[in-house]
Write a structure and sequence with these properties.
Strand content: 5-15%
Strand order of the largest sheet: 2-3-11-8-9-10
Helix content: 25-40%
Radius of gyration: 20 Å
Number of helices: 14
Oligomer: single chain
Bound molecules: 4'-deoxy-4'-aminopyridoxal-5'-phosphate
Order of helices and strands: EEHEHEHEHEHHEHEHEHHHEHHEH
């Protein structure tokens, strides 16, 4: 019986992304994760005079870069002996990580438990159920509350073995006998490593090291931290930008240059999900993963800019994107304008619009908020300089 709350581990990780491209046969699901294409965004490149390139992470088998993170968390835990077949991976998430963990858990003979707020989109819950996750909906409360969905998952992983009086959730019984880990994507540095060992070297290779800037929004901070650390080690002149959505406090922290102080790391105010139609991005606390990021500057972007961008690249490039991908592209244009013509700016397309039908792509929701565009913009004038 083992119950592990994952902390940072020493030693080299075992990246799932180390797939040999010379072997046309991938040995199972885990080897289909990563090695995503880098795509030139023609419309934005033409309009800015820069090369705007984006890593198409929505082409991972579970539809997002969280596949890399889930695979890294699970394989590290298995190689350390903290998780074995029949065991359970527990996480509190309303985003893509639950989907990726449920899928990866199935691939390695494990189970998954996901707690999420009960206002999460119905299709998300259905998808998790279909993937075989044990899903528990909890009332939305602040992260400081013991019943916040993240704290609930942490406790489930622990109670599974230590408290026989625990609430009768079937997964607890299995956790008690087979072992359970708390994936802990915000603080577990396997998240950082998934990007440092996978996403970043891939995009370094795909650009042949010829890039001037990388930009991304942060949810856990894993992507921007892993990629920025790797790129800065390769070439410290590469500019790293953060793009921050409404309701998130990272931009102000970067602008005030206080990102890395202990005081800032510990203070946070609550985020209000009604602040934005963006999903999966924005932070009001500094996570272990985010703290590893090396950021030169940041931009704020609005929901309306992202909504207009999503329509613009669908119309011009045929890309049907989710909210964070659209916001990353808004940021890429702002970075291109700041750098001037002739530069190469790289970003990430996290997931597809299909995951965002109930909010970001829902005309009624956008109309209610007054951010439903009348038509697709002819140019990039919807982006504030
Ligand atoms: N986009 C989406 C859709 C996400 O779910 C997340 C993660 N919550 C991100 C972007 C941000 O990635 P990261 O967690 O690596 O900062």
């Amino acid at each position: 019986m083992s119950v592990i709350i994952l902390e940072e581990v020493d030693g080299p990780a075992n990246p799932q992304n180390a797939v040999s491209l010379s072997d046309p046969v991938r040995k199972g699901l885990l080897e289909t994760i990563g090695q995503t294409p880098l795509v030139r965004i023609g419309s934005l490149s033409d309009a800015t005079g820069c090369e705007i390139l984006a890593k198409a992470e929505f082409l991972n088998p579970g539809g997002s870069p969280k596949d890399r993170v889930a695979a890294q968390i699970v394989t590290e835990a298995m190689s350390r002996g903290d998780l074995s077949r029949g065991g359970t991976v527990a996480e509190g998430t309303s985003g893509s990580t639950g989907i990726s963990l449920a899928m990866v858990a199935q691939a390695v003979g494990c189970h998954s438990y996901v707690s999420l707020p009960d206002d999460a989109a119905e299709e998300k819950k259905q998808l998790l159920h279909a993937l075989g996750a044990h899903v528990e909906s909890v009332r939305p409360v602040s992260i400081t509350h013991k019943d916040h969905f993240v704290n609930k998952a942490r406790r489930r992983a622990t109670e599974g073995s230590t408290n026989s009086q625990a609430e009768p959730v079937s997964i607890l019984l299995r956790a008690a006998t087979e072992g359970c880990i708390f994936a802990n994507q915000f603080e577990n540095m396997a998240n950082f490593r998934a990007h440092y060992l996978g996403t970043a070297p891939e995009l370094w290779q795909q650009t042949k090291g010829r890039l001037d800037a990388f930009i991304a929004a942060a949810g856990t901070g894993g992507t921007i931290a892993g990629v920025s650390r790797y790129l800065k080690e390769k070439d410290s002149s590469i500019r790293i930008y953060l793009v921050d959505p409404p309701g998130s406090s990272l931009h102000n922290k970067v602008a005030r240059g206080v990102l890395y102080t202990r005081q800032e790391a510990e203070g946070h105010r609550l985020r209000n999900p009604d602040d934005t139609v963006m999903e999966g991005i924005g932070l009001n606390r500094l996570t272990n993963n985010f703290k590893e990021a090396r950021i030169d500057a940041s931009f704020q972007a609005t929901d309306l800019e992202a909504v207009e961008m999503a329509r613009f690249v669908l119309r011009n490039d045929g890309l049907f994107l989710g909210s964070s991908s659209a916001m990353n592209l808004v940021g890429a244009v702002k970075a291109a304008w700041e750098l001037g013509k002739g530069h190469t700016v790289v970003t990430v397309l996290c997931d597809s619009g299909a995951r965002h039908l109930s909010k970001f792509w829902n005309p009624q929701v956008l109309q209610k908020r007054g951010i439903m565009p009348d038509k697709v913009s002819d140019d990039l004038s919807f982006i504030a300089k």
